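Q: Could you fold this chain for me?
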Amino acid sequence: MLAYSLVGGLMLTSVLLIVLVLLHKGKGGGLSSMFGGGVSSNLSGSSVAEKNLDRITVVIGILWLACIVAFGVLLKSGGS
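A: Sure. Below is the predicted structure, expressed as structure tokens.
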């Protein structure tokens, strides 16, 4: 039963991480700027919404990592 809960948590946090990362604004300096996509840069800094999005992404990432570690420990111990 615990293994199913961990797999469910892992799937949920994985989907949430994908959505949250896609919601972030591009910072430039990557492949997009190499082809001219990073020309316009915003120097006004981060807004409150962006900071909250960063915090939520970090928390979900930590939960995702905890699910992976717990699932690995469960598999190594032979539990199901």
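A (continued): The chain has a mean pLDDT of 82.
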